[in-house]
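Lay summary. Proteins are chains of building blocks that fold into shapes, and those shapes determine what they do. In this project we predict the shape from the chain. Here is one chain we studied, written as its sequence of building blocks.
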Amino acid sequence: MDQSENAPNNQQSAIRTPQSIKVATIVGARPQFIKTAVVSHALREAGLHEVLIHTGQHYDPLLSDIFFAELGIPAPDHALHVGSAAHGAQTGRMLEGLEAVFQQERPDWVLVYGDTNSTLAGTLAAAKLHIPVAHVEAGIRSGNRRMPEELNRIATDHLADLLFAPTDLAVDNLRQEGIPDARVRQVGDVTCDAALYFARRAAEGADILPKLGLTPGGYALATVHRPENTDDPAVLRAIFAALDAVAEDLPIVLPLHPRTRAALVAAGTSIDAYPHLRVLEPLGFMDILRLEQGARVLLTDSGGMQKEAFYFHVPCVTLRPDTEYPELVAAGYLALCVPRTPDELRAAIDGMLTAYPTERDWAPFGHGDAARHVARILVEEGPAWR
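And here is the predicted shape, written in a compact code that computers can read:
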């Protein structure tokens, strides 16, 4: 692409309407589908022209198609069908496909979410073509650079032109890394928008609890899928042994990610070795929200579920040694635990149930209007490169 074609034209930008501003949104994994459900609606409501690109990082119908249908997300304008692969191969295939789409569509902005390989690939492909990048969920840090997601976050934030930070701590993280304040906008967390909006629909319409014979407060909800847990056989076996032991006293419902099921086999065991767990196939967002709302405690390594637990006032034990949301740990809403024994997990659960704060007037993730702020700022910024 010729550099002169990328040069800003302030006079042209000043007279362009929101309808003429093209935003290429990159999604590929389940958490991004949830976020784009509310942001895409806000973009289109603001009159922006959105082009939705699905990399195919999550391609199983239970991890992809059901979310588009359930959350009312527009069908992708481009689907890359990249599928599973090692990090380098998967990211490389995405780069190749996204570069071709960007050259065809010539967007004014590329919008990326979170911390997946799709996020990194979208950012790299756009940056190399000199297309401005806006990153939703910027500034989130766990401090653990062994996590692929942490590396994706850092690289994306340092390449992106506009950083939509969800919290005060995220803004501070970006400032400490030397990113200019002029590139940062604190807007709140779009997952808060999604959780609050769709939780009402889930409470009214999802019938997962009676289907499973569950009563509110009578079970725990667990998920395990992060590579740091699934890729280490000893850690994976210890987590599942602890969950299974706890499930003898507290029923545990566990929607099982396909990768986790395969990882158990690779670790020399299988899900059948943990008979006390109530194992389910992956669920749609509405069913997950309803299970979260009704759970006595959440046991998860999911970043999104940590926040959803907070939104729904449900105690949460994070099955990791670190978290992207240390402010929730400091305030008593999360506990960290990678259980080596069942007693360690029991102690973490008991501690959360005993000490969980009963009252709060604290909203670190905003009030459910982050998506509208994202859309408004993109309209105000206009086409930044033409």
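What the prediction tells us: The chain has two domains: 3-189+367-381, 208-355.
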